[in-house]
Design a protein that fits this description.
Elements (H helix, E strand, L loop, with lengths): L7 E2 L2 E2 L11 H4 L9 E4 L24 E3 L5 E3 H7 L2 E8 L2 E7 L9 E2 L3 H15 L9 H4 L13 H5 L17 H9 L13 H5 L16 H15 L3 H10 L8 E4 L12 E3 L1 H12 L3 E3 L5 E3 L3 H8 L3 H8 L11 E3 L2 E6 L2 E8 L3 E6 L4 E7 L7 H19 L31
Antiparallel strand pairs: 1-2, 3-9, 4-5, 6-7, 6-17, 8-10, 9-10, 11-12, 13-14, 14-15, 15-16, 16-17
Helix pairs in contact: 2-13, 3-8, 3-9
């Protein structure tokens, strides 16, 4: 892959080695395809989905809405966005564009790195393939990928990687240069090692991973699970991921612009965090999810993109899913939450919220109770920042409540099928990796 130096940002040349580091990430996240190898994800040739302006659009009112931050200090939505290195944001309600904003490097037609929000799109590709009978979630992964027979994924089911519940060891610590997520970067060539030759490749890296726990017992967020899922989808469908996203999700949902998808320099798509898209198109994706997998057609009806029953099952937490989450490090960040089908779910001030999250502050926030979709692109100086994450979640919860005319009230932590409380029955775990 190309290692040519890009423009300088504050005197620092942008390269494939430092593209995620501050201060250059503020430029590179808007210009990924100029730094790293990418595929085009076509929007197709159909008309884009309309995003009509909401009657309340254009005013500054949302930015002045008061928010209580994670440290209990008084703030406003605008101050939270200002303080969390926001590159762009937009808000939809009932499919109408309420507000959007772009920093000086961005624009409505410019794709931005989505990072791990990409996982949610790949999860929807899997949903369509399952619905069509091309992929069996209860089949062993090695039935599709015999290349992983000697790895820790032997014996794991497709469902296990969909929900990140395999027993494979994979340490997702972004600040630790020896962690597995950083080794994955080296094997894809994103963080080139000092050696000569081409990158060793993402799929060959996955074959080196080994198991440390029984499959299906625990939930633990790991990007390798999404890469295995993407590989399984490609093998089951006989198509590359860029084509699958285009034909199953991007074009049918009415995207306005092509997306991009990073690959490892050898042609393997980076399923766990390789997508780049415009804020409006990510908003369209969120609106499709909010509408149960359906989008309006030109005849006044609807057409299905993602199976509604698949989304309903994801929203409807059961005791096993909840208990696994409660015992995981992620419970610290999202008490009462769960993870399913490559989405996060979190109890908010106005009901449960579906989330897509990516490092350095990428967010898709979908609230059924307030009929809102919020998108935020960011370039945090750190890969993870719990305070920035919590403040942004609070701001978007507040925006939804403001638009829907709701008072926050007490956050709902309902019981689930088995009677297990959403608050769990375990002691608070250590701070999490949640992107």
């Amino acid at each position: 892959m190309s290692q040519e130096v890009g423009p300088e940002v504050q005197g620092v040349p942008v390269t494939a080695r430092n593209w995620q580091d501050p201060p250059v990430n503020r430029w590179s996240y808007w210009h990924v395809s100029e730094i790293l190898p990418t595929y085009r994800v076509s929007r197709g040739d159909g008309p884009p989905r309309d995003l009509p302006a909401a009657p309340c659009a254009g005013g500054p009112g949302l930015l002045a809405v008061p928010v209580t931050r994670a440290d209990l200090s008084a703030s406003t939505v605008g101050e939270v966005l200002d303080d969390t290195f926001t590159d762009a944001y937009l808000v939809l309600q009932d499919g109408e564009l309420v507000t959007e904003w772009y920093g000086p490097l961005g624009a409505p037609d410019r794709p931005h790195a989505l990072m791990s929000v990409s996982k949610s799109v790949v999860g929807c590709v899997a949903a369509v393939l399952i619905d069509r009978g091309q992929l069996d979630p209860d089949r062993e992964i090695t039935a599709y990928l015999p290349e992983l027979a000697a790895s820790g994924y032997a014996g794991a089911l497709v469902r296990h990687v969909l929900d990140m519940r395999s027993g494979v060891r994979f340490l997702e610590e972004y600040a630790n240069p020896e962690s597995d997520i950083r080794r994955l970067d080296e094997w894809t060539g994103w963080q080139p090692s000092g050696g000569e030759g081409e990158p060793r490749g993402l799929y060959r890296f996955l074959a080196t991973l080994q198991a440390e726990a029984p499959h299906g017992e625990r939930f633990l967020y790991r990007s390798a699970e999404s890469d295995v899922l993407g590989w399984v989808c490609e093998r089951a469908a006989g198509r590359p991921m860029a084509e699958l996203i285009s034909e199953l999700i991007w074009a049918p949902m009415g995207a306005e612009h092509d997306a991009i998808l990073l690959h490892d320099g050898l042609g393997t798509a980076v399923h766990d965090g390789g997508l780049g898209a415009t804020a409006r198109d990510l908003g369209r994706f969120g609106q499709m999810l909010l509408d149960g997998g359906l989008v309006p057609d030109r005849a006044g009806g609807t057409r299905r993109v993602v199976p509604p029953q698949w989304l309903r099952r994801a929203w409807a937490v059961d005791s096993d899913t909840r208990a696994a989450f409660a015992a995981s490090p992620a419970e610290w960040a999202f008490p009462g939450g769960w993870y399913r089908n490559q989405f996060w779910f979190r109890p908010g001030d106005h009901g449960d919220v579906l989330l897509g999250l990516g490092i350095h502050g990428q967010m898709l926030h979908v609230s059924r109770r307030t009929s809102t979709v919020c998108v935020k692109f960011s370039t945090w100086p750190q890969a993870q920042n719990p305070a920035y994450l919590e403040d942004t979640l609070r701001a978007f919860d507040t925006v939804g409540g403001f638009l829907a005319g709701r008072d926050p009230g007490r956050r709902r932590l309902a019981g689930v099928v088995s009677g297990l409380s959403r608050s769990g029955d375990t002691s608070p775990p250590a701070p999490p990796t949640v992107v």
